[in-house]
Amino acid sequence: MSGAPPEVRDEELLADTIARLIGEARHVAIGNASPIPATAALTARARGNGRPTVSLLGSRRHTFFNDGGRELFDCAGQGRIDVFFLSGGEIDGEGNINLVSIGDYDKPTVRFPGSFGSAYLYYVVPKVILFRLEHSRRTLVPRVSFVSAPGTSAPNVHRPGGPVALVTNRCLFAFERARRRFRLESVHPGHTVAEVIEHTGFDFDRPDSVPVTPAPSAETIRLMRETVAPQLAEVYPQFAERVFGIRRAGWSPQGAIGA
Amino acid sequence: MSGAPPEVRDEELLADTIARLIGEARHVAIGNASPIPATAALTARARGNGRPTVSLLGSRRHTFFNDGGRELFDCAGQGRIDVFFLSGGEIDGEGNINLVSIGDYDKPTVRFPGSFGSAYLYYVVPKVILFRLEHSRRTLVPRVSFVSAPGTSAPNVHRPGGPVALVTNRCLFAFERARRRFRLESVHPGHTVAEVIEHTGFDFDRPDSVPVTPAPSAETIRLMRETVAPQLAEVYPQFAERVFGIRRAGWSPQGAIGA
Amino acid sequence: MLAGSIEEAVASIADGAVLVVPREVSGVAMAATRALIRRRVRRLHLVALPTSTLQADLLIGAGCVATLETSAVSLGELGPAPRFTAAILGGTLRMKDATCPALYAQLQAAEKGVPFMPLRGLIGSDVLAHRPDWRVIENPFGADDPIVALPALAPDVALFHAALADRDGNVFIGRDRELVLMAHAAARTIVTVERLSDGNLLEDPALAAGTLAGFYVESVALAPRGAWPLPLADHYPADTAHLADYARLAATAEGFARYLDEHVHERRAA
Amino acid sequence: MLAGSIEEAVASIADGAVLVVPREVSGVAMAATRALIRRRVRRLHLVALPTSTLQADLLIGAGCVATLETSAVSLGELGPAPRFTAAILGGTLRMKDATCPALYAQLQAAEKGVPFMPLRGLIGSDVLAHRPDWRVIENPFGADDPIVALPALAPDVALFHAALADRDGNVFIGRDRELVLMAHAAARTIVTVERLSDGNLLEDPALAAGTLAGFYVESVALAPRGAWPLPLADHYPADTAHLADYARLAATAEGFARYLDEHVHERRAA
Known about the structure:
Largest sheet of chain C: 9 strands, mixed
Structural class of chain A: alpha/beta
Helix content of chain C: 25-40%
Oligomer: heterotetramer
Distance between the termini of chain A: 48 Å
CATH topology of the largest domain in chain C: Glutaconate Coenzyme A-transferase
Number of helices of chain A: 7
Order of helices and strands of chain C: HEHEEHEEHEHEHEEEEHEHEEHH
Shape of chain A: globular
Largest interface: A-C, 54 and 64 residues
Helix content of chain A: 25-40%
CATH architecture of the largest domain in chain C: 3-Layer(aba) Sandwich
CATH architecture of chain A: 3-Layer(aba) Sandwich
Strand order of the largest sheet of chain A: 3-8-10-11-12
CATH superfamily of chain A: Glutaconate Coenzyme A-transferase
Number of domains of chain C: 2
């Protein structure tokens, strides 16, 4: 292979950033409609020779769950999910996320789909990575209208888990539970600290000198494109085609019962 | 068929007595090692054209349970089991049953297997029929050494179920919850009230004139012998052979997985 | 046990019933849902376990739902669920926002016949704050350890679609075990299926493990492609073109009415 | 994942471990139990979910068990379990008498990651009176409505025998879903099987429904007829003649020792 670094797509940079956040996990679970976190988890698995176990919830093939919808949550309650991803219609500076509505709950002006499993998983999964591509004052707000799940809890509330980071299209924030604040960790290539400040509705900590988010290695890029992208195509065909140019395969049953 | 009544075996009389107690149930469940209650339930089903549903817990064929051992108890908790059978190493006049031990619990002189599901099912199944063949002062005692499950509960204890009757080799007692006492309903043919009093360790109510337990009809006998006995043979082969002369079939798998 | 038609199977779902339905991937009875809308069922308390997509949106848009209890409604990749969103913003839907494991736990409490189930999480959230029917209690085995107690939820009816049933009402549900949970928790269960098997599913040791016993099933109706336009796992995929049409039409009340005329209500003879 | 031998598979079951095992009909790992006895495991806290027969009696007789937590031990139609009975009467076994649904509920609490599970029944029984680790609480949704709260029970190890596993550690458990509950509740799960499949059980839609995912399984060892002399459902029946011999021999300590020599300990070369 040539030593010249390949051109890195935005999605690849984000996935690589998230893969580093995943670190030494045993089991990463990813909800529906999260192709970039899925890319990150599958990349971590490819780098780790099959570890962590990755559960893609939209998939039949890429999950072992077969005990009904509660198994994901039971598994998390057992301490068997190390990393999960959440997002928010709004996210505030204390790590609170809002997946429900804006305005008075009884007469909202905006309605989102709902809290899904966040009001549980945010508490019990050790590493929750917040992922919200749109980094704006509309999404990153001073205070969410509705707390689907709080960033931190009172000391007497059982809470082995919580947010560790927030990844956006502009930067990576780390979440500091003790300070109940985000800290700017790095700014993605092509973006600036001033721009992050301008588009963030909440205060956050930052070092005097904020590094640039490192680009993925050539080897990671190769893994993503050659190994991970075909795996993604089952669950995220549109994403796999748009980002990695993987042609969608026709749908095929795995073998229908009694067919 | 001839009008002459067939000779009735003791087991047939007991099963017929129990079948009458079952009455208009939707679902009767029978634990292991209860061939006479099983005969009764299958007879009730044969008379009711498939109703009640009968779950024989020792069987794979005669139960629909396939959600693990908890399903029986969940099903009872849902109110979907109308009749269940319990027994006791000791049974006392208040309907308390002992399946654990005699003497000081920490230093017992006799140990029974254990309470099984009685400490739950006795509370939630509307009709629990106590069945204890051995009718003696050893088994029917003034006060059980250990209450695996009490015959009645305080008014504030959730208790939709409980004992309705006690069937022994000598007689049928009804249980009156409000009075917390048994009442002698009938004495089996060939037995006497005096004998029942002599061999019962607890006080019980009785009418001035105690009827004789009625014999099963010729039609019921025919159903038991022709329809029910072959069904029993899977689960209670020794019983089916001894009582009904059904030759034991060899064991055969229903079809092994991946065999 | 076997219903003569889908209409007959859903006939016992009364106005005001508490109706539980599964998430999109677990077998949604869309043909039966259209039959309910045609029958103009009203005031349903719809429990979507734990989320819903087209089914809830259709029922809400058609005016069948008074109360919705779920963790989320959207059209997935196609964006927000337009009639759900409109009903919430218009104040015409009573919403009981939940979180997925809480709904499972509430159904499990009903399955076990216990009055409540404890669950971690939730404390400090507005989900809990807006659910006066949920309580915070002290963990009896802890010290200063609050935990949420969720009341049992026993729906009147469970309704879903599956691949296969037999004539005893046994239904093959495979990996979708929340359908078993729904059937155990609900008073009555109504199922539509792709096809009927002549054998007894419980007598096949391979299939028995993935079978809901007919004991829990009130009626089964044949409905080939009964999940359409939603997918049926291992059998057919979502009709994404149709769903995109729906998303576009349902963006307005008029468009939604046109969708109902086109795809739900019976066609009049020309 | 695949252990080289039964001995290797059970090597991680340490002295003092909380070990959960299933009832007789659900797949008892008897070959592995004999291996544990040969290895002279000690001080086990044995949880028999919810009852046991030969397995508990053997382990108790061989001095492997300090504490037994279960709802009943007997030899079924063959009568009382002699070594269990002798240990109780001799005061050499710490007994935690339970009732079947309480054990299931305690495992379910561990499965859900909740500290306790409520259960009806029990109040006024001596089962409850002798379990200081169980509590009576007030139903938060009732009025003057006491209910028992049972603490979560998360064993160190679950051990059972099944028909079939694949090389990824997926195990076909069929209708014996309490094996899934055991594996979810326990920290580690060890399984012996009749045979190994070359395919992946989770990829077969029929078998997937009855498969415990290898994710929960620490090791699988091959053990043909590994439930003997107990039955393996759908595969082989109990060896009733052998069990009758056991019942007769185990009636005395001497007879039990002879049984161990004959059927459990390794035969020395003549």
